[in-house]
Amino acid sequence: MIVKTRSDLERELGLEYYVTTSPPIRGKIRCRYEDFIVEEVLRDGTVITIDSCEKVKIPIRGPGNYIRAILVKRGCDTLSAVYLLSRACKVPFHAISYLGLKDARALSAQLISIKDCKEPSILLTIKKGKVEIAKYVRSPLPLKRHELYGNRFTIIIRKIPLPPEEILSALTELLKQVHLTGGFPAYFGHQRFGTIKPISHKVGKAIIMNDIEGAISHILTNLPEDFTSQKLNATYSALNYEVLILKHLMKKRDDLLGAFKKVPIILQRLFIHAYQSYLFNKMLSARIRLGLPLNRAVVGDLVGFPHAGSIHPSCVFLAEKSNIEKVNRLIEKRLLSVVLPVLGYATIRLPKHKAAEPVISILEEEGVSADSFSTPHAPKLKCPGTYRPLTFYFEDLKVVQVSPEDESSCSLKMRFKLRRGFYATVVLREIIKPKNVIECGF
């Protein structure tokens, strides 16, 4: 049975279906930053915790040109925090490495590294309300992505209009169904696009199509409703690119390319990544709509090793008549997964036969191809692409507490881990099944 999303915004972002039919518990997330805690889990099992950072042993310490530090954020996105640190430490933005972009509307703890920080003691004085360095050590090496296993989430859903026994019953039913379907659908979550004004993927498409005017138009729709021209005179960071674009256009009205270049290159890439994510979501939804399985391969599918949300092309191969039975046995043991492309210029292998229909239909609908991501007009922005599993599981799920909030509602506190590249909000949408994702805190 195919269950369509209850949300118009989710349809717009390609998250068109649920894989469970369990009743929605409803409720709201992120009522407070402490309701959505994100803590990194390293490959050696170390958890970069919020409340006991002084006890965390930062790995790979020793003499060297790098500082490794624990960054704690409250209601702040990772890039803004990195920008603040780069100014405080007087190092370039790119001198700071991190293992992932954590939720902005959350309380999070993550590991970072800083190259050539001359006065590391200044890190412990950075307490800007939203950003704090809890601990640091010297290190000979910068952070590398392979060091990250995933993230641990501690989440409270509030204002659930159900008694505790019905909440637990719905969760039990959901877990049974997730097991049968092979996991949660590996959609890219809402925050990849922005939920209040989801324009990132639209800007990304405009960039790869060399439509600079369109990209700027989409960006400027993201200005707050109370924005006035007087605010142009305020001091803004390099990440307030909307204002920087407006300032440039006020001086040089016809210089669209110059205005767009005010957007930092790292954000330009993130726009393109958002469009790649949108295409994947649409392909995954098309596969569900066509009735193709998520937890079993059909002849023509591509399969790979599902260690994380991104699978290198060298670890992907074709399911054929000669190997389909063995492939499906390995999928059942969670050693393999059916994958779809996160499209890029180096995406050579695509599914075949019936398995190709979800990919071909979406690319035709969008009018793009793998070559679109070579961006000859902007070589620094070209994206090679990768592959992504169709499903994922959470680990170490624990229902911490279900308790009444008032006479008409309850709260649910839960904790679980996800491997890197997967989204807690995709888990939560199956539990809450929100109709209005903004009101529900997504």
UniProtKB/TrEMBL annotation:
What keywords were assigned to this record? Answer: Isomerase, tRNA processing
Which EC class is the enzyme in? isomerase
Q: Describe the task this protein carries out.
A: Could be responsible for synthesis of pseudouridine from uracil-13 in transfer RNAs.
Q: Quote the protein name from its UniProt record.
A: Probable tRNA pseudouridine synthase D
Q: Which reaction does it catalyse?
A: uridine(13) in tRNA = pseudouridine(13) in tRNA
Q: Which domain of life is it from?
A: Archaea
Classification via Gene3D superfamilies: 1.10.1510.30, 3.30.70.3160, TruD, catalytic domain
Q: Does the keyword Isomerase apply?
A: yes
Family in the record: Belongs to the pseudouridine synthase TruD family.
Question: What are the EC numbers?
Answer: 5.4.99.27
- Pfam families of this UniProt entry? TruD (PF01142)
Query: Which residues are the signal sequence here?
Result: none
Any single GO BP term: tRNA pseudouridine synthesis
SUPFAM superfamilies in the cross-refs: Pseudouridine synthase
Q: What is a GO molecular function of this protein?
A: RNA binding
TRUD domain residues are 183-393
Query: What InterPro entries does the annotation carry?
Result: PsdUridine_synth_cat_dom_sf, PsdUridine_synth_TruD, PsdUridine_synth_TruD_CS, PsdUridine_synth_TruD_insert, TruD_catalytic
The active site lies at D103 (nucleophile)
